[in-house]
């Protein structure tokens, strides 16, 4: 069994080599509670009265996340990155619609973004516009400025994979976000 186990990449052997996934940013000590039998071995059909601790944990987490983000409610449902992307984009579209800006439907996506990003944006009802990256893998600012100006009236958001699928942490991500916000996007 150990021979088979060693054929798989794990945090025991190396950093998990998924270019843009956050899994590699979780230290082993943060993941330890996920291995506690009393925490992970509850039966999925356990009666609610036997899962009060879980309910309390999720209620506290929901409260904390709402307080941090300023949202009225959050959802624990998006179970994958692509589902989370879609949920976030739908939240942006709903926010813009509530502000009377439902015409904003353009989503700028750097070419270094994860491949699911354009699909998620399209499924959310957005028009996808690619933004070039430079030879270092960072967003090409002149191309971004051109896209921001071209789509200023209809810009909904910029969708960034961070770090990019090339493993690049955008040095000026704060500046990029400010530029998008100044152009009316999220």
UniProtKB/TrEMBL annotation:
Gene3D superfamilies: Type I PLP-dependent aspartate aminotransferase-like (Major domain). GO terms for cellular component: glycine cleavage complex; mitochondrion. GO terms for biological process: glycine decarboxylation via glycine cleavage system. One of its GO terms (molecular function) is pyridoxal phosphate binding. This is Glycine dehydrogenase (aminomethyl-transferring).
């Amino acid at each position: 069994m150990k021979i088979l186990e060693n054929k798989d990449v794990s945090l025991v052997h190396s950093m998990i080599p998924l270019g843009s996934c956050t899994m590699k940013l979780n230290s082993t000590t943060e993941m330890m509670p996920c291995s506690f039998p009393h925490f992970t071995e509850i039966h999925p059909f356990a009666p609610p009265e036997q899962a009060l601790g879980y309910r309390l944990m999720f209620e506290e987490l929901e409260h904390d996340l709402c307080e941090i983000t300023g949202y009225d409610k959050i959802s624990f449902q998006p179970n994958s990155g692509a589902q989370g992307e879609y949920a976030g984009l739908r939240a942006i579209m709903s926010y813009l619609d509530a502000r009377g800006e439902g015409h904003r439907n353009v989503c700028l996506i750097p070419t270094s973004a994860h491949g699911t990003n354009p699909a998620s944006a399209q499924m959310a009802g957005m028009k996808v516009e690619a933004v070039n990256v430079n030879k270092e893998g960072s967003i090409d600012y002149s191309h971004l400025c051109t896209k921001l100006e071209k789509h200023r009236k209809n810009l909904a958001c910029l969708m960034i994979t961070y770090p990019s699928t090339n493993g690049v942490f955008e040095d000026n991500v704060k500046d990029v976000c400010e530029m998008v916000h100044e152009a009316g996007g999220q």
